Automatic annotation (TrEMBL), chain A:
It comes from Pontibacter ummariensis. Keywords: Membrane, Transmembrane, Transmembrane helix. The chain crosses the membrane at residues 54-72. The keyword Transmembrane applies. This is Uncharacterized protein. It comes from the Bacteria. The lineage of its organism: Bacteria, Pseudomonadati, Bacteroidota, Cytophagia, Cytophagales.
From TrEMBL, chain B:
Keywords: DNA-binding, Sigma factor, Transcription, Transcription regulation. GO terms for molecular function: DNA binding; sigma factor activity. InterPro entries: RNA_pol_sigma-70-like, RNA_pol_sigma-70_dom, RNA_pol_sigma70_ECF_CS, RNA_pol_sigma70_r2, RNA_pol_sigma70_r4_t2, RNA_pol_sigma_r2, RNA_pol_sigma_r3/r4-like, WH-like_DNA-bd_sf. GO terms for biological process: DNA-templated transcription initiation. This is RNA polymerase sigma factor. It comes from Pontibacter ummariensis.
Amino acid sequence: MKKDLKLSDIPKHNVFQVPDDYFDRLPMRVMARTAAVEREEVTWQTSFWQRLRLALPALALLLLFAGIYVLHVPAQPEEQATNLTTVSDAQIVEYLSTYATVESSDFAELSSLQGQELTAEFMNISPASAAEELEYYRLDEIDY
Amino acid sequence: MRGCAVRQAQPLFVTKGTTKLLLIISATVEDKELLEKFAHPESRNLAYNQLVRKYQQKVYWHIRKMVIDHDDADDLTQEVFIKIWKNLENFRQDSQLYTWIYRIATNECLSFLSSKKRKFFLPINDITAELMEKVEASPDIAGDEVQLKLQKAILRLPDKQRLVFNMKYFDEMKYEEMSAILGTSVGALKASYHLAVKKIEEFLKQD
């Protein structure tokens, strides 16, 4: 073979061959295959719609349950916190004085507040009642 | 299915003697006329048959030069025409029909070759070696020593460059046509072709 062979030296020639009458038969084969693909698609579409029709009642029922659940979902914790802010301090103090149990640790905490003024509103007690209470209890006898 | 129009391609049964006549008629039918016929349900199958006859050789040879094997080329050619059947209704005529058909054929070829590489976990060289072996051993490939060496040199090019080379060298397409099909600029195609020629000539010089 020539060492300095150029592309232009080589005659253009189709080296590939096809079976006899290949191009005479190809259109028929293409048409037959296209028809088969179309039939498959029609069958698939038909069976899809049939399956969808069967699945629709179950799907509707599922959506109904989901809707009911969403409507009755319990209130979020954030909402509860928000609601608490709407309650006045006086109502909170009243609630605590009625239901909360006072423990000695609470008194200990109270001692850390010495020197700070507790408002009358917070104490929820008149100066006269406070004096009465102080007279009744001898504070130096209480252990805490 | 109720309420839904179904179109099916029906094989047109013709005798062997009439096929050559149909081929000649189909080759002369204008693309515009084919598209007009295809748009009407009553003439759709006839138009499609004429389209297949008109473009079958161009599509087949375009694919064959890329995949080498006749059976692969045959299968891909049929796939291309099935895609044409499915999508011709939506063909917007922004481009020419033959450009659109070539583009489908090109995409089929490239995805076939890349899927083959993925499927067998083979590096590019092994696929090239497999195709070269086919060039040497296949009874469907006939040519002298130089012709076969040229085919092997072409196979050493990357797929897209091989495509560009085949379209320019064998199909003698204009760069503008190739640009419309491949979606690449004319300048890039020219550069790719000249590089391909250089690589091929380098290979031809080797023993």
